[in-house]
Amino acid sequence: MDVRYFLSRKVNFIRQFYEMSSAPFVERKRQIEAKEEPYVPPYSEDPEPAFLEEWLEAEESLQVIGRTCISMLAAIFHLYFKTWERQIGVPVDDSLKTDFKKNGWFNGYKAYFARHFRIRFEDSPCKLGVLEEIVLVRNRDQHPESITMDNAYYSGSDLKKLPHPFFISESDASLFSEVEEGERAWLIAPPIRVTPEKLFIALSEVESFAEWLETIEVERHAS
After folding, report:
1. Prediction pTM value
2. Average pLDDT over residues 85-97
3. Residues 6 or more apart in contact with residue 13 via CB below 8 angstroms
4. Neighbouring C-beta atoms of residue 146, cutoff 10 Å
């Protein structure tokens, strides 16, 4: 089976799914900001911008779509590794179960490939931090802590492991970068923000990683 072919097909599906699903909400925000019909603001002395609730609903809808796409990507990426495991014919044994349980499946497979095939994920040209955050965002989105929360947030333990969180807003990233390295601590955990740019980076990183891994595997079998 050409595993990367099927991975690429599903990644491309996520791209077009996001573009098609997000379009109505992107357009609604544009119309509100441009004050176009049906969002022409009436005369009012209220300092609150007109149609603020509608704008916020559109933005939250975009975030839900973005996190859903990241969750889909995480599931596909996991299946990619499991399929490779079956094709290689070397199952994850008990000696690696601790790595999977303690550090998650991505780091579990990192240990799996390092132990059995001397393939170090750190040698890939990809941004491993982004790949690890794909899994983290999926977990945070699928397991919210409160029914009152509209957004998904990084946890305190997440932030201790992430010197530079990827899926945060530019304003949060700028605020975080101004704090000295040894003094970094979030007073309030930042919300996870999946912009189209960051989603497409994540999709490309998964594809690039798969291409690199399969090149290494071909070289290993040829040697």
Report:
1. 0.89
2. 89
3. none
4. 7
